[in-house]
Design brief:
By secondary structure, the protein is of the alpha+beta class. The strands form four sheets. A six-stranded mixed β-sheet has the order 6-7-8-3-9-10, with helices on both faces. Strands 13-17-14-15-16 form a five-stranded antiparallel β-sheet.
Length: 325
């Protein structure tokens, strides 16, 4: 088990994290999410031992993770960290970069293991290509294979798909997270992409204002966000008064509604004035205005600018969000 106990950290006088507590079970995949600058990468560096905490401790089972004040070379042998700097050997081949950490194996086993990793990152055709000639996304995939070569007990991923083309991200996610689950590797992923967490994370940790403000399954946090900040990390979200969309509701409480949960109505509901339609492929994202507040909703077709439309929300969604609030 990975355990983070009352950890606080500051860069000089700038406090970044305060009183962070988290327990991660063996083989569990935790996604850490939050706005830019909230401390996601800093937390991974603390867990790996690259930064010295001001207060608190980090443990893997009974072994304390020591920071740079105690280790000349930071980092623990059972743990690997994939940062946004790839740290590759540019003048050697993809195969050599990956197999470097497998040199203790018999040649046949080494080649099989390297081939397995190259297939996972979908770079078998580039095995003999020097890394310097690869794109940034391809280099990120090589760096990923390198950190997996020795099968660490704990893997720390900092925006692991940030440089990779959108058309390839989905297959790589399936390959990587399926592989990690099969190997029972404990994973912490810092990400801003909901597609990294919704299908693959066991739990999600939300950071804001230096603290953990929520931690639960991705399904729970998505379906029952306690505030608009959390909801916005999963998609376009709005906060609206209930009694406007359901006139019989005897309350002025406001609930969170995702853009896809609105339905356009001809006569009643939340009245908005359309300002812009954005083509998204299978639907349009419509921007409207209600009492100087921007409202975003999905629609199957473009809507004329300055047109008045009414929006409704299902009673099931309202009841769920009412119960959650």
């Amino acid at each position: 088990m990975l355990q983070i106990d009352h950890v606080s950290f500051a860069y000089d006088e700038l406090s970044v994290l305060e009183d962070i507590n988290l327990k991660v079970n063996d083989g569990e995949h935790i996604c850490i999410i939050g706005e830019s600058g909230c401390g996601k990468s800093t937390l991974l560096k603390i867990v790996y031992g690259l930064l010295q905490v001001n207060t608190g401790e980090v443990y893997w089972d009974d072994q304390q993770v020591q920071g740079p004040d105690y280790n000349l070379v930071p980092g623990e042998s059972y743990m690997k960290y994939l940062s946004q700097d790839f740290d590759l050997m540019p003048f050697t081949t993809v195969h050599e970069n990956v197999s470097q950490y497998l040199s203790v194996l018999e040649p046949e086993v080494l080649n099989l293991r390297t081939q397995e990793l190259l297939e996972m990152i979908e770079l078998t055709d580039f095995a003999q290509t020097k890394v310097r000639y690869l794109s940034g996304g391809q280099q990120q995939r090589v760096a990923l294979a390198r950190v997996l070569a020795q099968e660490p007990k704990v893997l720390l991923l900092d925006e692991p798909f940030s440089h990779i083309d959108n058309f390839r991200k989905n297959s790589l996610r399936r390959n990587l997270f399926g592989y990690l689950n099969k190997k029972n590797i404990t994973v912490l992923t810092a990400t801003h992409d909901r597609n990294d967490m919704l299908p693959y994370a066991d739990r999600v940790v939300v950071l804001r204002d230096k603290k953990i403000i929520a931690k639960n399954t991705p399904q729970f946090l998505y379906q029952q966000p306690k505030d608009i900040y959390i909801a916005s990390l999963f998609g376009e979200a709005n906060k609206i008064p209930i009694n406007i969309v359901k006139t019989y509701a005897d309350t002025k409480r406001r609930i969170i509604v995702y853009a896809h949960e609105f339905k356009v109505s001809a006569k009643s509901g939340l009245e908005v004035v359309v300002r812009q339609s954005y083509y998204m492929g299978g639907y349009y994202m419509i921007e409207g205005i209600y009492e100087e507040q921007k409202i975003y909703f999905h629609h199957h077709s473009e809507i004329e600018k300055d047109k008045d439309v009414f929006l409704n929300v299902s009673i099931e969604t309202i009841n769920q969000r009412m119960a959650d609030s």
